[in-house]
Amino acid sequence: MANSSNLDLSTMLNSISLQFNRYFSICIFLFGTIGNILNCFVLSRPSLRSNPCVFYFLISSIANMISIACGLTTRILSGWNMDPTTTSVYACKFRAFIMFVSRSIAFWLVASATVDRYLLSSHQYQLRQLSCLKNAQRVTITIILCSLSLYSQVLYCYQANNQSAPLRCYGKTMMCRLVTDMIYTIITILCPLIIMFIFGLLTISNIRRQYEVASGQRELLDISEKKNSKTLKSVNHLHRRRRRIDRYLRHVLLIQVVFLAVLTVPQTIEKFYTTLTINQIKSSLHSTVDKFIYNFVLLLTYLASGMPFYIYTLSGGNTFRSALFDFLRINK
């Protein structure tokens, strides 16, 4: 009786996992691809593209789009047993390499955007000067090159038709899996999240300090503005606009960090659990549950890659929405 119940549960979980791959993957693919394409168009608008933080967001959106295109297409095809990475060694290696590299680039660029917000909010002139488009471009090139070299081992480690792993395209040895899992968990996920958290707190501290200084100088500024109101009017308008954009970017950044942590950390835990228990003898039901959880948390990571546009639209204030409406109006 118990065996029959376990078999029924295993069959149900396999069926749910199959439906996830077929239909939930398609929804995430459309959701993420459309969002990232719109992100690229909106963030490249003249009113935004000169901002270094926006530049980081723009390249991050391109990396997310590549991650979704390489990763989710094979998940969708696997729902109909048409995934070429399960049988082709070259397709398996290429897909894993591009997916890991693009995700690493996306995470580190968001972390770099957090550091940029900290630099820009600093009371030290030298630190504020480091927040510029040229430095953002240099950092981006460095991140891309480091990510490419970091995951070069995937081209050796990954193999197709792997029967003892949660996915048919997976690391071929225990050492390969441990190395890949360590790099992915620590360098691609945890380190950027820690940097986002630390520099997010430092940015908040800088902003509070600025408010304290501003309140102490308010009377002096009011007197000065009365004497030079015509001269300062346009300058103040531009300054307020830049501060508004910076405020929205900080808000967007905080929300994005929370979503990234919630949607990606479960996969890192599951990857380590799967690798460390690979040699344990498991029942058929236990193995089915492990694969079901792994497939589910894997899809969550693609959801994280597809969410930035919707975060920017809902929490980015009028700045981002105005740029979006301008783009849509021009392209009617």
- Number of alpha- plus pi-helical segments: 11
- Radius of gyration using CA atoms only: 23 Å
The total strand number stands at: 2
Strand order of the largest sheet: 1-2
Q: State the share of residues found in helices, binned by percent.
A: over 70%
Per DSSP, what share of the residues sits in E-state strands of 2 or more residues? Answer: under 5%
Inertia-based shape = elongated
Structural class: mainly alpha
Largest sheet: 2 strands, antiparallel
Helices and strands, in N-to-C order?
HHHHHHEEHHHHH
**Low-confidence parts lasting 5 or more residues at pLDDT below 50?**
217-221
Mean pLDDT: 83
N- and C-termini, Cα separation:
63 Å
Structure commentary:
The termini are far apart. Helix 3 packs antiparallel against helix 5 and helix 8 packs antiparallel against helix 9. The protein is an all-alpha fold and 332 residues long. Strands 1-2 form a two-stranded antiparallel sheet. The chain is elongated and about 70 Å long. Helix content is 83%, strand content 1%.
Outline of the structure:
Helix content is 83%, strand content 1%.
